[in-house]
Each structure stands twice: as C-alpha cells, then as structure tokens.
Amino acid sequence: MLLPLYQVDAFSDRPFAGNPAAVCPLTEWLPEATMRAIAAENNLAETAFFVPKAGAEGEYEIRWFTPAVEVELCGHATLASAHVLYRHLNFQPEEIVFHSKSGPLRVSRAENGMLTLDFPARPPKPLAQHPDGLVDGLGATPLALLAGPDLVCLFASEAEVRALRPNQARLAEVEFRGIIATAPGTNGIDFVSRFFGPRVGVPEDPVTGSAHTTLVPYWAEQLGKTSLRARQVSARGGELWCELRGERVLMSGHAVTYLKGEIELGELN
C-alpha cells in the first residue's frame, strides 16, 4: 500500500521556517492505530489526515495526531492541508470546509497567496492560582494566568518570552494541554507567544494556530482592536495576521511545500 505524503512549512513564505506539518490525503480512513503509528514515525508536531466528506463536494473530514496523541484542533496542519489541496491536488473553489472534532473549519485563499483559517474563538478566563510545577517549569514567574484549553502565562515583554528556557519534565506536570507564554510585541507586531506542549509530545511548537484562538480574543480586548498581527518567537518563528470576528478567529498565513513522496505500508490487518 502506497500513501501520498506531503510535508509543508505552515505560517511561513519560505522553507525551513514556520511550523512543519505532515499531510496524508486519503480516500478512506485508515485504522486509528496506523494513523498514530504514521504520526509517530513522522515525528512532527502534527500529522493531518483528511478524507472527502460523503455527499458534500469540496468538503472533507480531518483528523490530527501528534507523535503521542490525537488532538481536537490544529491550525498549522489545517493550513498545510489546504495548501496541499490547492497546490498539489487541483482543488478549485475559493473555500474548503474541513469537518473536525471542533466543528466545521473553513479555509479560503486570497490573491496575495495567503490562506485564511476560520476557527472558533476560545477566550480565556483569569486563573488565580499557579498550578504545581509551572514556575519551576518555565524558570520564571508570569504576571498573570489565564485558563482556556491551554494555560496562558502573561509576561511584560517580548524579551522575557524569548528568554524562557523551560524544564519540560516539570511543565509536563501542569494539567493543561499546553502552556502559552505571551507578551506585547514591538515593531508593528501586536503580541508574541511561545507554546510548550510536553504532555502531548510536543516540547515546543514552532507556530501554533490553535493557541491563537485563545490569544486573539484576549489581546483584542486588551488592545482595543480586532485586527492583530502576531508572531510566535520560537527558534523557527512564524507570523499570523489575525482578526476577531464575533465568535470566530480568522488567521492568515503563507505555506510552502518542503517535500512530497509516498509512505510504503505492508498489508494492513
């Protein structure tokens, strides 16, 4: 059995930056154990699998796996999947609908070559108490904490966020999917962030679209604006152009193909 495989650098307009995702287009679902094994073998933050949705032209079902677990929402691998459809699979309509465990996710393309994700907003709420292991794990004490699907740690400056050298073993004790460190940006960037997810097998994610469904509502309120430019200041780095639109977050970015090939599997039981 041969399966197509693409590796795409998402939220970047050049190779070797942004967040690499593997994308496996399928005609029908593989056994879950096989998808988990492929994701572990790829050893990227996420591998996306999608299949055409029966009876719905231009719509797909999508699932994402880290090397360790299946996740309910992933931005960069959805962007990468849309890029594969447009760039390599001759998809023509201006909008793609992906059906996921987090509901329908729409991706559209603009004339400037960017792709725009339309995701549900997931605003955070204040959290008074520091979870065990957090300060030791970050090696720094946040100004404040917010709780959403991930734990948001607020810092005063971009320099503090960049300077974090986390203890991943300690951060893995914190009972959230991921730990987001964020601060105001500079030089035209509204806010910066980093994302640590040792509990889901991702020590540091280069650019995390799903985290921005929480960050954008928070920073939109703090800054009094709904259009925001964000930068994730990981080693690879990446930029997102974001907009809060009611209960939805729009995130736009570039994507480039790094490789395409085939996975060779034996007969599946």
Automatic annotation (TrEMBL):
Active site (record annotation): 46
Family listed: Belongs to the PhzF family.
Keywords: Isomerase
Top-level taxon: Bacteria
Protein's name in the database: Phenazine biosynthesis protein PhzF family
Organism for this UniProt entry: Hymenobacter psychrophilus
Pfam name, any one: PhzC-PhzF
Residue runs in coiled coils: none
GO annotations of cellular component type: cytoplasm
InterPro entries assigned to the protein according to its UniProt record, in alphabetical order: Phenazine_PhzF-like
Molecular function (Gene Ontology), one example: isomerase activity
Record carries keyword Iron: no
